[in-house]
Amino acid sequence: ELPIAGYVLRYEGVEDASDPHVEILRARVAVFSDSGESLGMVYPEKRFYRKPEQPTTEVSIRSTLAEDLYVILASYEPESGLGIFQVYVNPLIAWMWIGGWVLALGTGICVWPSWAERTAVATERAKAEGTPTDGRPA
After folding, report:
1. Which long-range contacts (CB under 8 A, 24 or more apart) does 110-119 make?
2. Mean pLDDT per 10-residue run, the chain (138 residues)?
3. Which of 26, 39, 96, 136 is deepest in the core (most CB within 10 A)?
4. How much of the chain is helix, strand and coil, in % rounded to 5?
5. Residues 118, 124, 126, 127, Cα dihedral to 10°
6. pTM, whole model, 2 decimals?
7. Which residues contact 31 (CB under 8 A, 6 or more apart)?
8. Could you tell me if 84 and 78 are in contact, meaning their C-beta atoms sit under 8 angstroms apart?
9. φ, ψ of residue 20 in degrees (nearest 5)
10. CA distance 47 to 25
């Protein structure tokens, strides 16, 4: 068991999830709060793609509004069945994403023309075309 920043992680082993194109070692890690409440499982992976012979690491992330828990399978020793993990707790990451959406929405609202601007553009267009702006025929 690994206590870290309000969490307790328990390594439960590695399973082989390979297919013909990729070798996958998927670790099973149970996540608990400090009080012992189960918060679910995370599944970090090591992958080796056979065709381009490319190894990759898949990070498992448990996100909340308060923080993100990143669990990385850094290494695995097949003889002993032990895994080595890197674990990071990053606070307030979700709020960065929410802030980006709020910024985009605010920008959209600011650049949307107001009623007065739309009316002025319509009036200028009508004057250029020679039509009256009050709806009377020319």
Report:
1. none
2. 89 87 92 91 92 89 92 89 89 90 92 80 80 58
3. 26
4. 25, 50, 30
5. 160
6. 0.69
7. 7, 8, 9, 38, 39, 40, 41, 42, 62, 69
8. no
9. -60, -20
10. 6
